[in-house]
Amino acid sequence: MLIAELARRAGLPRAPTLHLLPSPVLQAMAAGDREDPAIAVTSGLLQTLPPRELAAVLAHEIAHIRHGDIFIMRLAATAGAMTQVMSSVGLFLLFALLPVLWATGEFLSPLGILLLTFSPTVSDLLQLSLSRRREFLADAGAVELTGDPQALALALRRIEAIQGDDWERFDSRGARWLHWVRTHPSTSERIARLAELVSPVRRDLPLANRTAYLDSLAGRGDRSWRQNLMRPFV
Fold first, then answer.
1. Mean pLDDT over residues 9-27, rounded?
2. Can you tell me the distance from the alpha carbon of 69 to that of 130, in angstroms, rounded to the nearest whole number?
3. β-bridge mates for residue 108, sequence order
C-alpha cells in the first residue's frame, strides 16, 4: 500500500493511520508522532487529485511526522503563550506600580516598556516564520520520499485553482506585508522552491485508485486524531 511504502522510506516505525473527513474542502493534515502517527484527508481531496499528486500530498504529511513538526510547533505555541502571559503580567505590574514609581522618581526605560508591549507580537511573527520554514522542509521531504517534485507542484496548482488563495488576492492589492502573518508560504513560493530541487530518479510508488483509498478508509471517519492535530497542507 502507498502509505506503508512512504512510511518505510521515511523510516517510521509504523505507517500512519488514515482518517477520512467528509468535506468538499481539499485538505490533508498530519497528527501524532513517529510512534503513533495519523493522517486525515478530506473526501474532496481524494475525489479531486490524481493518484500521483495524492501520493505527493501524503508524502508531505509523512515528512511532517518524520521531522517531528507537530512537537516542534507545539513547543513554539507554548513559548508564545508564555510570552503573552509574562507580557500581560509585566504590563499589569507596571501600571499598578506607577504611583510608586512616580513618587520615587524612578521609571522603567522606554526599551523595557517596548519589550513588554510588543514581545507577544514578535513571538507570534517568529512562530509564523517557523511554520513557513517547516512547510518548505516538508515539501523537500516529500520530494525525497517520492523523487517527484513535479507531482507536488501540480497538486499545489490544482488545489489553488479550485479553492483559490485569499492571501494571494490581498497580495495583488498591494498588501505584501500580509506575507509575514501567513502560516504557509504562498503557492508560488513553494512551487519555485520545488523547481530548484534536484531530485533523484523518480521512485516508483504503488499508486492506488480512489476506490482503493476509500475502501482503506472505511470506518475511519472518527475525529479522535484531532487532539494531536498538525497544521493543514495548504
1. 94
2. 10
3. none
Query: What are the residue ranges spanned by the domains of the chain?
Result: 2-232
Annotation marks residue 61 as catalytic: yes
- Asked if the 2-232 domain carries CATH number 3.30.2010.10, the reply is yes
Total number of residues shown for the chain? 234
Judge whether residue 175 has pLDDT over 80: no
Q: What is the pLDDT of residues 64-93, one digit of tens each?
A: 999 999 999 999 999 999 999 999 999 998
Note whether 39 and 21 are within 8 A (CB): no
Instruction: Report how far apart, in Å, the C-alpha atoms of 151 and of each of 53, 154, 158 are.
Output: 5, 5, 10
Among 61, 135, 144, 160, the one annotated catalytic: 61
Q: Return the axis-axis angle of helices 2-10 and 110-146, rounded to nearest 10°.
A: 120
Q: In this structure, are residues 38 and 19 in contact, taking their beta carbons and an 8 Å threshold?
A: yes
What does the block give as the cell for 135?
512547510
How far apart, in whole angstroms, are the C-alpha atoms of residue 194 and residue 170?
A: 24
| Long-range Cβ contact pairs of 113-120 (< 8 A, separation 24 or more) | 116/87, 116/90, 116/91, 117/87, 117/91, 119/83, 119/86, 119/87, 120/80, 120/83, 120/84, 120/87
SS3 121: helix
